[in-house]
## 1
Amino acid sequence: MALFIVRHRHEAERCPATDPYMGATLLNYLSRPNVRQHGITIQGEAVVQGEHTLYMIVESSDEDRVRAFMGPFAQAGTPDSRRSHPRHSGDTPSSSATSASGA
């Protein structure tokens, strides 16, 4: 299984939370049983306050599966996913950044 960082962003005017039906639909879509049916595990999630942006760290067998899962979010904005890798237990944030930049 691979890790992916997923971002969904939308304009305030298109915020699904302002529509009770759409908000409830998306919350149900993100429920653990539904996510599992798509072959995805959500490891963490956060909404950036005031920016209408959702970040998730998800685990899946491949990126196509993640993109397909995020398809419904395109109705309100722009979903994006990127493959990531877990930090090794000995890594510190500064050493990970240094090794990732090639310095």
Note: Confidence is low (pLDDT under 50) at residues 95-103.
## 2
Amino acid sequence: MGDNTRILLMVIATVVAVTGIALVSVQFLKGNTPIILMVIAMVVSVMAMALAGVYLGGGIAPRILEGLKQGTFEVAFNSKGRMQETMSHIPVFVILNDRAALLGGASAGVNRATSKI
């Protein structure tokens, strides 16, 4: 699978997992097409990652940390209808290291440069 296909599937899976859209219906599942099976696998993967925690990064989150602690964000994050119980168990973290993206990019670059083709 090429990088573009993998990225597209990840975007679709993220949209499905985050919005709760029932994109993959029983009719699609009956066909067991490879693309649908890949989307299902990625949806499960994205949901598993989200259940492990949500990390807020970038320049804004650290600047509004005190506001995030006041509870408005938590109420909005947890108020997801039938998913409220699940959402209330997902930890939320704020990344305070202003070089996190640079470090992550460097790490990915090193991994890609040293991986076998």
Note: The chain is about 65% helix and 5% strand.
## 3
Amino acid sequence: MATLDPEIAGGGIRRRREPSAEEAAGRGDAGCFGAEGHPGKKLIEPAVRRSAALRLIAERGYSQRRACGLIEVDPKTARREPVADAPEIRERLRALAGVRRRFG
């Protein structure tokens, strides 16, 4: 059954035309991020997440709980102090890995 147009012209009834297809099926905007642009790098490593949470706390004044929730990092990770690097231990491990390939 055709839809009737409320406007009657010339004593007859005009029928509405079927709307044309706008675009092909599927997502035409795949990969687009919108007006805000690309969100930036992914925060994968715990050290990067920790520094991002600490930056939110320092620069934006967020609480530790809120900053860690936004970054999705455990608050214990944000509180943890980084361990100082010990180059002599690192060299010893590299020497052992060179001698015993299975441990390297």
Note: The chain has four helices and two strands.
